[in-house]
TrEMBL record:
Keywords recorded for this protein, A-Z: ATP-binding, Nucleotide-binding, Transport
CDD domains: ABC_MJ0796_LolCDE_FtsE
Any GO MF annotation of the entry: transmembrane transporter activity
InterPro entries: AAA+_ATPase, ABC_transporter-like_ATP-bd, ABC_transporter-like_CS, ABC_transpr_LolD-like, MacB-like_ATP-bd, P-loop_NTPase
Protein's name according to its UniProt entry: ABC transporter related protein
UniProt cross-references to SMART domains, sorted A to Z: AAA (SM00382)
Pfam family, one: ABC_tran
Gene3D superfamilies associated with the record: P-loop containing nucleotide triphosphate hydrolases (3.40.50.300)
GO cellular component terms attached to this protein's record: plasma membrane
Amino acid sequence: MLQLQGVGYAYRLNGRQVRVLQGVTHTFERGSFSSLRAPSGSGKTTLLNLLGLLDTPTEGRYLVEGRDTRHLTDAQKSSLRARTFGFLFQNFRLIPTRTVLENVTLALDISAQGPKRAQREAALRALEQVGLAGRAEHVPPELSGGEAQRVAFARALVRQPEVLLADEPTGNLDAANRDRLLDLISAFHARGGTVVMVTHDDVAAARATHPLRLEALMPAAATPLPVARAAARG
Ligand SMILES: Nc1ncnc2c1ncn2[C@@H]1O[C@H](COP(=O)(O)OP(=O)(O)OP(=O)(O)O)[C@@H](O)[C@H]1O
């Protein structure tokens, strides 16, 4: 479903190119649950951004359901992103001044899905699934970390995406909240969802059907260099 073919990415830093990923080749099959582990700074977040169409590879091809994303316009990319992907981040990324319900509803609003009342009902259903419908009118600063991440999960899934892209989603949670979140992610997977989860956590990685290491997705010669060395070499 998600095919990376020789994908590379280089950031521009002070007029120089800093290569972060090179030759990444891998297919994430529909319905798989992959965990992705790699040394800090080696490009895991960059890879998630490429997978989620938030960024575009500077080398190689990336196909989503067989469609070569190089040929998509920005509008087509946005629409494919909204339909296909839900995102979950380590630091939740909720809007602190909007209620829990608004935070979830906004995900539907941005992709213009349905009338306002239907959006509100869908958001409430998503909050019920994570056990937080009773907190709908609270604002994020009133939530615990575990609750905030479950709201972020509801926001990620309210559009019913096929793929969940998660970047260290348990990084800021204690063991009980980590397990509760992992149960939600596993349930999404059991319903047929595809998961790609960056994690350093062995407990989280153990939930995956496909535990991966970033280095194994790249040809040996292209194993990422620490950025300082890469920059020094130009
Ligand atoms: N906007 C940017 N401009 C320049 N370089 C960047 C930019 N974003 C990231 N980088 C560089 O690319 C490298 C890979 O970053 P990325 O965030 O993908 O790594 P990571 O493996 O997710 O790291 P971590 O595990 O620490 O979160 C980093 O070392 C960073 O220096």
